[in-house]
Amino acid sequence: MFEEIATYTNMYGLQLGLNSFRLTSTSEIKILFALHIMIGSLNKFPRIRMYWERSLRIYAFLENMSRDRFFQLRTCLHFVNNLEKPTKSASRTTSTLEGSPSTSKTTSESNPISKSSATSTSELKDKLYKVRPIIESVRKRCLQLEVERDLSVDEQIIPFTGKIGIKQYIRGKPCPWGIKVYVLCGKSGQAYDFLFYQGKSTEINKETLTKFGHGASVVLHLIERISKSGHHLFFDNFFSSYLLFTELKDKGILAAGTIRINRFFQPPIMNDKEMKKKERGFSEEVVSPDGIVIVKWLDNRTVCLASNYLGKGEEDTAKRWDKNTSKYIEITRPAVVKEYNHSMGGVDLLDQLISLYRIFIRSRKWTLRVTMHMVDFALVNSWIEYKKDCEKNNITGKNVIDLLEFRMRVAESLIKMGQAVILNKRGRPPTSNSPRNSPSNSPVPSRRRVETRPLREIQSDRVDHMPQFDDQKEATRCKKTGCKGRTHVFCDKCKVHLCLLKIRNCYSDFHRK
């Protein structure tokens, strides 16, 4: 994908006719993405230009890419040929994943489109075609993950207040304005599939949409990647309907969620006015002939839930704050409420982890906002996958790196792993006539640089690890684990000293896996 980004970025830069544009490469595109990841991980300065301030000494920015080149590449960043705008039916054919379940039919029907219906023609086009390659790349990896038992479907918002036809407002979200994404998540926060909302162009089967409605069709679209029965699925009242619960029961998926009572054919259940006269914790249950259970529970206010496998069940107790007595009290809680509260917050957890180190983008281009959101999305999903692997291998405590360190390691690997060393640094070297080197000034004692071992991914990539000799009077301690020798030889890429002798070749051992 990085190679394609470099190709189409060069193509767009030439189409703009920029005289100062220099063709980019795959390694430079990796550096561009790595610097964006660092921008989200480091302290967020009020201006992005401040990362290149000499006084702040952020060498990852100063040594790898100039400030003007960074903004130039970000302006020209493209994933497709800008002159080829595909229709939605064509883009759906090219973006269907190999081995993944078919999600929807093509939107081009047998009836031809009249010349006067210009609006309907635009609706057939994929509105996200400019960023479709990175969306499908992340989704393809999500479809390869092993699905956990407890799943949830909810809405995610990509913060954006600029101009785009699919912008939505979701009340209650921290950033209510933006691009809406439907996500299938596990209880751990790991995403297994997602779907961008595009209005009438949303990739949903038209027959399913006609039968079940929009919310239920989204759930049925996302669960197509589930290959076996026995999963527990939870969603809120935006998606729930009576037909959805019966359909999920036929598929062997156990589902529960909050509901809107008018979607359930007027069930014989107590209304809100009568229920509020009962004591707090009161609940009522109604079961349909199809086995769909509706439970209405009184907490601070009434809440209705439906399920195709569970109702009041074995009730437990929950602590709630009572305003009248100014203390916590215990109230009874139905089993379906307990299961819903325990497993519904997967998408919210994913949103929370993304918001911790979100890539700082202040741009009117929605393509940049979606691109960097998918980078954050992939980083969080990878970190959750990494934590699961640590649990399987009994790695605990301080040996498990947190999300911030994980992001920084990914960024550093994108910059250095598999890349050659850039020997010619930008800028003019100081001359002997400069004030710093003048004899009249007293010498400033320089702090000794502490050598740190590189990441193992960079250490063993076997690209451009060249030995060099230093000019120091005293030899430096070898950085190979277990060696106590001293040497003047260091690696030009790893920046650590290593023994290179006939009797002891730490340099070779250090760079092998």
The tally of structural domains comes to: 4
Structural class: alpha+beta
Helical residues, percent: 25-40%
How many beta-strand runs?
A: 15
Q: Low-confidence parts, pLDDT < 50 over ≥5 residues?
A: 89-123, 427-447
Shape: elongated
* Main pleated sheet: 9 strands, mixed
Q: Measured on Cα atoms, how large is the radius of gyration?
A: 29 Å
Overall mean pLDDT stands at: 83
Separation of the first and last Cα atoms: 27 Å
The share of residues in extended strands comes to 15-25%
Characterization of this structure:
This protein is α+β, with helices and mostly antiparallel strands and 513 residues long. It folds into four domains: 136 residues, no CATH class; 105 residues, no CATH class; 89 residues, no CATH class; 62 residues, no CATH class. The protein is 33% helix and 15% strand. It has 17 helices and 15 strands. Strands 1, 2, 3, 4, 5, 6, 7, 8 and 9 form a nine-stranded mixed sheet that branches. A hairpin with an 8-residue loop joins β13 and β14.
Fold blueprint:
Blueprint: H1 2-16, H2 26-41, H3 59-62, H4 67-76, H5 88-95, H6 118-123, H7 132-143, E1 150-159, E2 167-169, E3 177-186, E4 191-196, H8 206-212, H9 214-222, E5 232-235, H10 242-250, E6 254-258, H11 272-275, E7 283-287, E8 293-298, E9 302-307, E10 316-322, E11 327-333, H12 335-343, H13 346-356, H14 366-392, H15 403-416, H16 456-459, E12 467-469, E13 476-477, E14 486-487, E15 489-491, H17 506-510
Parallel strand pairs: 1-5, 5-6
Antiparallel strand pairs: 1-3, 2-3, 3-4, 6-9, 7-8, 8-9, 10-11, 12-15, 13-14
Helix pairs in contact: 1-2, 2-15, 7-14, 8-9
